[in-house]
Every structure is written in C-alpha cells, then in structure tokens.
C-alpha cells in the first residue's frame, strides 16, 4: 500500500514516536511525506520515505494530486488543531480529495493507530477493488 505521512510542527514528535512504534508495519509499505516530516522520518525513524515539498510550499497539494491519481491508499495526517496554518486551503483540499477518492485519512494519533492496525490485519483489500473500479475510467 502507498501511505502518505504528514505532521504539523507541534505534532511531528508524536508522528516520529508513532513511526518508531509501528516501523515493523510501515517499512513493508511505500511511504511518502511532506518535506520536513519526510526528512525527520528518514533521519529519526530510519524509514525510506519519498519527500515532497514542505507543506506550506505545496507538499499537501502534491500529495492531494497523488490521491486523485489513486496512488495513495492511506493518509496519516497528525494535524495541529490549535495553530493557524498559512496553507489551510491546501490542507482542506487534500482532505476533500481523500473523501472524493475513498482514501482513509487519520487526522490524529488515535485514529492513526486504528487504521494502521487495520492495515496490519488486511482490512485494506477494498482499496484494490476501488482502484480497479476507477481504472475503467482512465484514458
Ligand atoms: O504543513 C504541513 C502539512 O500541512 C507539513 O509540512 P512539513 O512536513 O513540510 O512540515
């Protein structure tokens, strides 16, 4: 599965701890992340991660585009609900595209735990079916 990982600044430590705890699951998948988050995941959690631009510079939009192409199966987005983000429209757009394309998206660690355990237990087969059903519309 293709997993996108994103964390706002005040949630980055939490995401690193989460990634260390679930490294045994995450390392079996293809990982991508916004710039700063991805850099920390590689350096501190030892995971191989494709890095997009930093969020405020377009990283959320880049991941949103991958969602629209059905190239993301799960988004773990540790959001900071108490700090205004300059790129809030990009964040909203990413979450909207996850809804449009049936991509599970966790916005906090509690939800991320449930989804990663679901992934471990093979509950993501529906993503393959969804992708196959949308493939027929591809040109
Ligand atoms: O701002 C972000 C998501 O909206 C995260 O971006 P960085 O990982 O580059 O800090």
UniProtKB/TrEMBL annotation:
SMART domains xref list: MGS (SM00851)
EC top class, as a word: lyase
Keyword Lyase: yes
Residues the record lists as binding substrate: 8, 12, 34-37, 54-55, 87
GO BP annotations listed: methylglyoxal biosynthetic process
PROSITE patterns per record: METHYLGLYOXAL_SYNTH, MGS
Tree of life domain: Bacteria
Location of the active site: 60
E.C. numbers: 4.2.3.3
InterPro entries in alphabetical order: Methylgl_synth (IPR004363), Methylglyoxal_synth_AS (IPR018148), MGS-like_dom (IPR011607), MGS-like_dom_sf (IPR036914)
Keyword line: Lyase
Domain MGS-like: 1-139
Recorded catalytic activity of this chain's protein: dihydroxyacetone phosphate = methylglyoxal + phosphate
KW Lyase (keyword) present: yes
Assigned GO CC terms: cytosol
Molecular function (Gene Ontology), one example: methylglyoxal synthase activity
Family: Belongs to the methylglyoxal synthase family.
Job description of the protein: Catalyzes the formation of methylglyoxal from dihydroxyacetone phosphate.
Designated name of the protein: Methylglyoxal synthase
Annotated source species: Marinococcus halophilus
Source organism phylogeny: Bacteria, Bacillati, Bacillota, Bacilli, Bacillales
């Amino acid at each position: 599965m293709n997993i996108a990982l994103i964390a706002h600044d005040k949630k980055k430590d939490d995401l690193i701890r989460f990634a260390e705890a679930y490294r045994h699951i995450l390392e079996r998948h293809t990982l991508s992340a916004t710039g700063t988050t991805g850099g920390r995941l590689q350096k501190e959690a030892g995971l191989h991660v494709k890095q997009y631009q930093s969020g405020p510079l377009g990283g959320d939009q880049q991941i949103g585009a991958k969602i629209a192409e059905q190239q993301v199966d799960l988004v773990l987005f540790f959001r900071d609900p108490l700090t205004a983000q300059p790129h809030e429209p990009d964040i909203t757009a990413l979450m909207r595209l996850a809804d449009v394309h049936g991509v599970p998206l966790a916005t906090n660690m509690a939800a991320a735990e449930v989804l990663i355990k679901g992934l471990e237990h093979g509950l993501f087969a529906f993503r393959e079916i969804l992708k196959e059903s949308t493939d027929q519309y591809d040109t």
